[in-house]
Structures are given as C-alpha cells and as structure tokens.
Amino acid sequence: MEQYGLMLTAVIVAVVVFLFIRVTKGGIPGMLAKTVASVGFMALGLAGLTQLQSYSSFGVFIILGLLFGLVGDVVLDLKVVYPESNDIYLSSGMISFGISHIIYFVATYLLAQFLDPTFSLVKPIWISVAVTIPISAGILFASKFLDVKFGKFFVHALVYTLLLVFMALFSIYVAFSISAFKLLAVGFVLFLLSDLVLSTQYFGGKPNDKLLIIINHALYYGAQICIASIFFFI
Predict the structure, then answer these.
(1) What is the mean pLDDT of each run of 10 residues along the chain (234 residues)?
(2) Could you tell me the pTM of the whole model?
C-alpha cells in the first residue's frame, strides 16, 4: 500500500498542475499537462495489475478502459487546441469514452465473477437497464431547461448518457452484495457527474468557464483514480 500511496499522490499532483495550466494558459501546454495526468491514472492501474496474486481477465479490461479514457482525453483536448475541427474531435472523444464504458462493463462483470462466482448478475443487469431508461430520459429532458442544446450530437449524447447511467446504477447495485464494488460505484457516479458538468460546457455555451473546468476535471480524475485503484482493494 505504500507504493499505492506514493503513486496516488503523484497522480493528484499531476492533476493539480494540469488544472493550473489549463485555467491560466490552456492551449497546447494544457493538452500536454492533461496527457501527463491521464498517463498517471494509467500507470496507477498498471501498477495495481501487477499486485494481483493470480491472473484474471478483468484486469486487462480495466486497463483497456483506462486506455480508451486516456485517448478520449487527448482527442477532446485537441478540439480546444484546434477549434476549427471541433466536430470531429468532439465526436471521436465521445466515441472513445463510450467504448471505454462498454469495456468497463465487461471488466466489472468479470470482476464480480472473480470475487464471487456464485453471485448472479442477471438481476442486477436487467434492473439497472430498466431504471437507466427513465433516468436518462429525465436527464436529457431536464437539459432543455438548462439551455443545453446537443444539436447534431444528440444521438451521441443519448447513447453516452445511457452508458454512464447504467454503469453507475449497475455498480451501485452490485456494491450491496460485493463490498469491493463500492469503490467502483463511487468512480462511476463521479464519471456521471463529471459529464453532466461537461455537457453544460460543451453544449451550454460555457466551454471556457474556469470554475466548471475545475469541477469537471476534479470529478473526472476522481472517477478514473477510483477505477484504477480497484486492484489495490480486492
């Protein structure tokens, strides 16, 4: 756990440095600093993977999910550096994060089986799906009153919202039976909150609001750190 503490501290420092550069300079320096911070949670996950006493495929999927998150980070920051190509970078970034959540679902499914082979995931999955639909619809409906306009990205937003809400609900449900999932549940809830804030920036006309930038990234990196840290707590 000493190694975990040191690496966690280093990642948090990298995130703080990135946020300082983002709100004071932005541009390419901000993108590079963000990449370093994201490499940090990748490194945390890889270090945790080596701590496992035995091989399990869930670990590989966790790392893949983190990797697609890192790619999404870089791509989304390219839209800040090159605003003339905003649409392609925004679309690519959302797709990358969508893929990461699909991979995270596979990882969490395998992790639940790894921790408790007798635990059936059929009920958690179907209940989570059933609850996800009205909650996602409510979020998208409420966005209209917050002057959030998805426009041509409505389908992207719909699919991504469904994935975010499902993962949050699924991990919370499983956490009641498998305690290790509590950390993942916190992570996926933070992910959902982060993207709700991000939506007000990208689609609500506040891309350069410094307070929202800080809140969004604090929630986001908290989410990825929780997910990457799961190896140290199982």
Answers:
(1) 88 96 88 93 93 80 96 87 83 93 96 91 95 94 84 90 96 94 96 93 84 95 96 89
(2) 0.93
